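Table S5 (text form). Sequence records supplied for joint modeling of the two-component complex.
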Amino acid sequence: AQSVTQPDIHITVSEGASLELRCNYSYGATPYLFWYVQSPGQGLQLLLKYFSGDTLVQGIKGFEAEFKRSQSSFNLRKPSVHWSDAAEYFCAVGVGSNTGKLIFGQGTTLQVKP
Amino acid sequence: DVKVTQSSRYLVKRTGEKVFLECVQDMDHENMFWYRQDPGLGLRLIYFSYDVKMKEKGDIPEGYSVSREKKERFSLILESASTNQTSMYLCASSLTGQGNADTQYFGPGTRLTVL
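The corresponding structure-token record, covering 229 residues in total, follows.
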């Protein structure tokens, strides 16, 4: 069955430190992979997506993610975290045929210490 | 910019009431989705629609129905609200074109409390 796992429910990092949020997926075919961010009180915003080509994907707000087929992973990274990055982050995999349907992970809440 | 709006940010209803959550998108998207978001469970798909009057069940359709009479509007209906339907409800839309790579655009959410 298709699934997405985000092993870390909460992560706390200091401002200026590097960040890596983990995402593992289970999907039989070539996956389409997404990272979304949800700031407090707001809807989800797309950070980046992978569907083919270069396995290192650049997104908005200085984020990047690397698709590793051998590890079934799509981890999100940022070299230097800002206080405004505090939010909930969701990894998702596209499933089905041409419906745009996504399966989401459980989410990781990021806290940023001053 | 794509805009997805939801009729209410906060809603309080009583057990047994019929509840309507409305979602409107302004970018002529074919696909529309309703999710519920609960802590520790992420987003779970309730229903989706890929065309007017077309709908498909998602992962947790029990206790819900939907209506899509116009392309821009997708309604979620709780026929008889129960306390276990207290949750955040998110609507999203996407354009068909890259199959599963379509980006979903989300509304701000409706926090529903059923007493």
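Note: The radius of gyration of chain B is 13 Å.
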